[in-house]
Specification:
- With about 240 residues, this protein is mainly α.
- The protein is built from 10 helices and no strands.
- The longest helix has about 35 residues.
- It starts with a helix and ends with a helix.
- The relative contact order is 0.16.
Amino acid sequence: TGAGSFVGQLLGTGDAKSPAFLVGDQWVKTGKLAYETLAMSVLAMGIAGACVLITFLPGARNVASGELSGFRSPVWRVFYLALRIIFIITRGVPELFVAMIIIFFFSPGIVPGAIALGLHNYGILGKLSTEVVENLDYRPARALRSSGAGMLQVLAYAILPQALPQLLTYLLYRWEVVIRTSIVVGFVSAGGLGREFRLDMSFFRYTDIALLLIWYLILVVFVDLVSMYLRRLAR
């Protein structure tokens, strides 16, 4: 059958030369690409996490309205609406499309892919993190305000301690997703395993494809285990 023939080609059956996954040099070469893919995912989550950390509080309805923060201003309301629009746009545009545009402004490599993944996940994490703030317990903030605490003190001692653990959990969950989508973004010359996968498919180097798939599975398992460990620390 066609499927059986394809699997046989991946395993290198009937091929005169050794399969790529049995050659040590090929493991070293593709290992560097796997490292680039991992670095792309970490950089992407760093971009998304830094942007969310700056904007998730003013992007929450109860902070912008003053219901939670105790501080009301038309400027906060405008900032809130602008951030909500940004969240919708960034999470609505596929990361592959963004990467295809960014690649025209940067040389091929992991940076365009990381920016594309970071922007897309910024929109997702921005929405999730603001919902966390909107569902917080108001009692600590009200207690601090009643004792004379200012807005910054309320944010630092009542809001952030409740919101940050959940935000970190969401960030780690999205990292697990990003490591899976990074190979797709790599198809548009964004570096890592994805770019090499596209080239090997074009030249029908099936055993090389099998080796890339092995590295891909290793990365997925590795990131899942690290994410699980870090989520336990964050609780």
